[in-house]
Design a protein that fits this description.
Length: 458
């Protein structure tokens, strides 16, 4: 039996834009995903858009009961900025305040620890039309939004989160075209990343002033970069990959300053963002109280085979190639590598390099396409998901035994949810969602997860 420390949190994570859905008259404004779907529905799997998510907005009472039925002692979700403040920087939508307060109160009434994220890839479209995160005005609007959240819901929320995986909109929106505005502009990417970090630090400052007894953190996808070999060129490639992927937000969020090597590379390629000197003091003085860590698969890299063309637009891959390790363990239903050891390596790195900061594993999960083929007697028999969780928890437990400061495990996700361009292609939930009837059915993993929580181990 593997036992976890007393008080260890067991639960799941989701987000507002991926779970709530949208109703006529609910007061919600458009965010970038609403707009992008209206303009290019063909980019979305089966042309299912964000208005058709897992209908939490209308089924939340039932869903919160299912949190209890699957053993949750913690639950992480997000507030949609465009629902609370439809134009991003104006009047508050009273229907949103009523909705979120009722959701949060019902979660609290179940005795479940509530973690609430302020931003999950969902910028109000009114602000995007003004330049989005490339503009300093968006930073200030975000901080005003954050203050509204702290004041309206601070009595119900146990832990706040400023941003989820902030590197993803930077990469997706300004380098690789899988988030709106889907442009290739490394200079804008650097500016967006900087403004996002500044907004996070300013929200930490505001939270400490408004709710000084509440912890606030940031959720980062700290994907370890593993070199192909120990050859110096491969090791350098992995180090630089981590600079962009992880340290660009990890270091300023936890240490209060950017890595010098990252600054050197940005200057070398003339990508330095515009900033005010006093901003750096804000970042320095307002580090997070804890980290959320998302982990799905490793990043394996090698030294680049070819030199970048001098006239090409900049990409981080100037410094590394992606590497597929022969014989790697795979999730055949999703196409991602499964490497449980990554959890242990993240934990040891935080312990050694980041003062063993308190952290929660806020996302880990196994997506499966065509999961209905595993249904027997009306229940999804997802033993593969149970084994996936066990493997990662074994590595996490080992790290905790050695001193890692991890306080909980949150699976992605509670109920099958909509996922950006993939829509419902890959299912991750402990609970199955029937898209036709909206019926919810607990999977085998959901019943197992309840036992995991009750036993505080397996």
């Amino acid at each position: 039996m593997i036992h976890f420390p007393d008080g260890f949190l067991w639960g799941s994570s989701t987000s507002g834009p991926q779970s709530e859905g949208r109703l006529s008259g609910d007061g919600k404004g458009d965010n970038t995903w609403d707009y992008w779907f209206s303009q290019a529905p063909e980019k979305f799997h089966n042309q299912i858009g964000p208005e058709n998510t897992s209908t939490f907005y209308t089924h939340y009472q039932e869903d919160i009961d299912l949190l209890e039925a699957t053993g949750h002692t913690a639950f992480r979700t997000s507030i949609q900025w465009s629902r609370l403040i439809p134009d991003g920087d104006g009047e508050v939508n009273p229907l949103a305040v009523t909705f979120y307060r009722d959701v949060f109160q019902r979660v609290k009434d179940k005795g479940i620890t509530l973690l609430v994220n302020l931003y999950h890839f969902d910028l109000p479209m009114v602000l995007e039309n003004k330049g989005g995160w490339t503009q300093r005005e968006t930073v200030l609007a975000y901080v005003r939004y954050a203050k509204v959240c702290f004041e309206e819901f601070g009595d119900l929320v146990d832990r706040w989160i400023t941003f989820n995986e902030p590197i993803v909109p930077v990469e997706g929106g300004y380098l690789y075209q899988f988030h709106y505005p889907a442009v290739i502009d490394a200079k804008a990417a650097a500016q967006v990343a900087y403004h996002t970090q500044l907004a996070s630090s300013m929200a930490v400052q505001a939270s400490h002033e408004i709710n000084p007894d509440k912890k606030i953190g940031i959720v980062l996808n700290l994907t370890p970069a593993y070199p192909r070999s120990q050859h110096p060129a491969d090791v350098k490639a992995a180090r630089i990959a981590e600079l962009f992927q992880a340290k660009s937000f990890l270091d300023p969020s936890v240490k209060g300053e950017y890595p010098q090597e990252l600054i050197y590379i940005l200057k070398k390629h003339q990508l330095m963002p515009t900033y005010l000197p006093e901003d750096l003091e804000v970042i320095k003085a307002n580090t997070v109280d804890y980290l959320g860590v998302n982990y799905y698969q490793p990043l394996r890299v090698a030294a680049p085979k070819h030199q970048a063309h001098p006239d090409s637009p900049f990409f981080p891959e100037f410094y590394y190639d992606h590497y597929e390790m022969p014989g790697r363990k795979m999730n055949p239903h999703r196409g991602w590598e499964i490497y449980e050891r990554g959890i242990y390596d993240i934990a040891k790195n935080l312990e050694k390099e980041y003062s063993n900061i308190e952290w929660i594993l806020t996302e880990n999960g196994m997506g499966v396409e065509g999961e209905e083929k595993f249904r027997q007697d009306g229940i999804i028999q997802d033993d593969y998901r149970i084994e996936f969780i066990k493997g990662h928890l074994s590595e996490l437990h080992k790290a905790i035994e050695e001193g890692a400061n991890c306080q909980g495990y949150l699976l992605w996700t509670f109920i099958d949810c909509w996922s950006w361009l993939n829509s419902y292609k890959n299912r991750y939930g402990l609970v199955e969602l029937d898209l036709e009837t909206q019926e919810r059915r607990i999977k085998k993993s959901g019943k197992w997860f309840k036992a995991l929580s009750q036993n505080n181990g397996f």
